[in-house]
Design goal:
- 38% of the residues lie in helices and 29% in strands.
- It has 302 residues and is α+β, with helices and mostly antiparallel strands.
- The strands form two sheets. It has a ten-stranded mixed sheet with strand order 7-6-3-4-5-10-1-2-9-8, sandwiched between helices. A two-stranded antiparallel ribbon has the order 11-12.
- Helix 1 packs across helix 2.
Length: 302
């Protein structure tokens, strides 16, 4: 994992703050999914925000998934992340053509939509998943994560994420931040933070100038006003091996596998999160079919 996420606490002990450089992982995600310019920005923002949220809310073997359904032309935006820095995701329509606003800038809210739902599911070992929901407030991604945290987690928070693009529609930079109030934060502290956020350099500018995670936070809090607690390597989650997809095929009815053999002479399985394709030829499918039939025969005997 070449990208990094920084965990800090403000020197006045009022806030904990996270910042991420996710340029490499967003570039890889765009390449894996063949994402268009606008889809790369939407997916990139969601991946960054999800990893920031995971670092703030899960630990150990816990993980979270986020589903954003704003009913826009991009379709659903689905992401997952764990406490170890691995994140993955996809959008329903990765080849969406650019949608621009009156200033000829990418209209992210127009692509995502703002008339749907925002859902976070937290998974923990040996317990039922916890589901939190909120409304989509803008479709800009960062605002929607911020609203979820404030409403569902009941902690004053702000998430800012950005992806800048090159003229050739490739990812130039990607990064963001998450700030949360600590229990001892006062109303004066919150007001002061709000003022600082209004005065901060635009995130797109910071990223374009190569701003590091620390530089982003120091632009908000001031030079040397945050104390580094930890640095976490972040990147796209590893693609499951072909054997994992084979295992999935063994759960299908025998008739479906037989149809793949008879009608197509093979099967191509595409990883939803990675975009990677795995091909199973006629011989491989025949072996899977034999395994399914053997399992069905055992169930009949029992």
């Amino acid at each position: 994992m070449s990208d990094q996420l920084l965990k800090t606490i403000s020197k006045d002990q009022a806030f904990r703050a996270f910042a991420i450089d996710g340029t490499a992982l967003v570039r890889q995600a765009q390449d894996s999914h063949g994402a268009s310019r606008i889809a790369a920005v939407v997916l990139g923002r969601a991946l960054l925000a999800t990893e920031l949220l995971a670092q703030a809310t899960v630990k150990g073997e816990e993980r979270i998934s986020v589903t954003i359904n704003g009913r826009g032309p991009i379709g659903k935006v689905v992401t997952e992340a764990n406490a170890e820095g691995a994140v993955r995701g996809y959008v329903t329509n990765p080849e969406l053509a650019p949608i621009v606003n009156d200033q000829n800038q990418l209209n992210i809210a127009g692509a995502v939509g703002n008339h749907g739902s925002f859902q976070v599911t937290k998974y923990a070992p040996y317990s039922e998943p916890y589901i939190g929901q909120s409304m989509i407030v803008s479709g800009e991604i960062g605002d929607d994560f911020t609203y979820y945290l404030t409403q569902s987690e009941q902690v004053p928070s702000v998430i800012g994420v950005g992806v800048t693009m090159n003229e050739d529609d490739t990812v130039k930079t990607a990064g963001g931040f998450l700030i949360q109030a600590l229990p001892d934060a006062t109303e004066a502290d919150l007001d002061a933070l709000d003022a600082k956020l209004k005065q901060m350099t635009p995130l797109s500018t910071l990223l374009s100038e190569g701003g590091s995670p620390l530089a982003i936070l120091e632009d908000i809090f001031g030079a040397k006003q945050v104390e580094t607690l930890a640095t976490v390597g972040v990147g796209l989650a590893a693609e499951p091996p072909k054997s994992a997809y084979r295992e999935m095929l063994t759960t299908l009815p025998a008739a479906e596998i037989q149809a793949m053999i008879d009608e197509d002479g093979g099967a191509e399985v595409t990883g939803r999160f990675s975009g990677k394709k795995h091909y199973f030829d006629r011989i491989e499918l025949a072996a899977i079919l034999a395994e399914i039939k053997a399992t069905d025969d055992l169930k009949k005997k029992d």
